[in-house]
Amino acid sequence: MAHQTNKVMTAKEAIGRFVHDGDHLVIGNYTVGTCAELVFEVIRQQKKHLTLYSQSGVFDVEVLVGGGCVDQLVTTYVYRAGGKDGGSAVERALKAGTLQMEDYTNFQYNARLVAGMHGFTFMQVLEGAMVTDLFKKRTFMGEDKYRVMTCPYSGKEVLTVPAANPDVCIVHVQRADRFGNAQYWGALGSVAAAALASRKVVVSCEEIVEHDIIQSSPHLTLIPAYRVDAVVEVPWGAHPTEVLGYYNLDRVAYALFFMSDMTGDGLKAWMDEWVYECRDRQAYLDHYALKHGMQMLDAIRAKAYYSAPANYGSAFTSCWDDENRERSMGITREEMEKILEERGLLYG
């Protein structure tokens, strides 16, 4: 069964197998702990003509657009490293006509994913947007960006957005087991909805743990194994962004990136150094150590701050005891079926 299959593989294997040219790709992380190594691998493999979904188009979106991977962008926010004049990768691509973008509010963006997660075809959103440029300005989605319909209950005109069901979600979490049960904690954003709305899910994590650790804290499992296609263990896999419980935002590395991103040549030089010339995350960390020293990484490692344990224990986990007898009546399944049959209560 899918939830009992070992899905551990490298980032190179996972992206090569599950992300294809022309896919609708969603970045599951929102603002914090972005799946940097998975994003870098998409760029290294030169995936093309993607429609990219991102709730926070900052570092991750900039490098994907700068790498020439994205034709269409669905987002709620775009970072402009040097303002409208200085630009950024997204700004430059929009001006050059190589990128089209549809802009939503955070609520509307999440509504699309939540609809997709639940199998709906659309979701109602707040109709106040109809007087804004969000509603009026449309690019590649055209009439399908929003639809206005009559509520069957009130007769009122309501605003709706279409469900989103991306081909692939890439997402970084704190830990997972080898089967794909992915545990995440901290600022949730659209992590769960982005993953569960998607047809394929590639998870990277700071560490792979044994299944009994996952079982001991079920409330942290946002993405269950049966929905996950690949698990990639990547310590520091979100750097330079932060991962709660592991490391903080690397403000120096982050600032150096955005200074480079202010010009096309600057971004190209940064990506040559940190993406193309580093074959994987270990090579990236080795290069970081040579350039900045490991003390900079050590300085942002998280200090331990554990939550109080919760008791998930019970007297027993099955109504059948170790001798396969029903606990309250003391009879076996066969004996129970015989009684039911004698009383005409056994069906099927």
CATH class of the largest domain: Alpha Beta
Task: Look at the structure and give the mean pLDDT.
Answer: 94
CATH architecture of the largest domain: 3-Layer(aba) Sandwich
How many β strands by DSSP?
Answer: 12
Named CATH topology of the largest domain: Glutaconate Coenzyme A-transferase
H/E topology pattern: HEHEHEHHEHEHEEEEHEHEEHHHHH
Shape: globular
Structural class: alpha/beta
How many helices? 14
Major beta-sheet overview: 9 strands, mixed
Q: What proportion of the residues is helical, as a percent range?
A: 25-40%
Proportion of strand residues: 15-25%
- In total, the number of domains comes to 3
Give me the Rg, rounded: 24 Å
Q: State the separation between the terminal residues, measured CA to CA.
A: 26 Å
CATH superfamily of the largest domain: Glutaconate Coenzyme A-transferase
Uncertain stretches: none
Characteristic terms for this protein:
single chain; 348 residues; alpha/beta; Glutaconate Coenzyme A-transferase; nine-stranded mixed beta sheet; three-stranded antiparallel beta sheet; 14 helices; 12 strands
Structure, briefly:
With 348 residues, the protein is of the alpha/beta class.
Can you describe this structure?
The protein has helices at 11-18, 36-44, 59-66, 83-86, 89-96, 106-118, 133-136, 191-197, 211-216, 251-261, 264-276, 281-292, 294-299, 333-342; strands spanning 24-27, 50-54, 70-75, 100-103, 122-125, 147-150, 157-162, 168-176, 182-183, 200-208, 221-223, 230-233. The protein has 348 residues and is α/β, with parallel strands linked by helices. The protein folds into three domains: 2-118 and 166-299, Glutaconate Coenzyme A-transferase, CATH 3.40.1080.10; 124-162, no CATH class; 314-348, no CATH class. The strands form two sheets. Strands 1, 2, 3, 4, 8, 9, 10, 11 and 12 form a nine-stranded mixed beta sheet that branches. Helix 10 (251-261) packs across helix 11. The longest helix has 13 residues, at 106-118. The radius of gyration is 24 Å and the shape is globular.
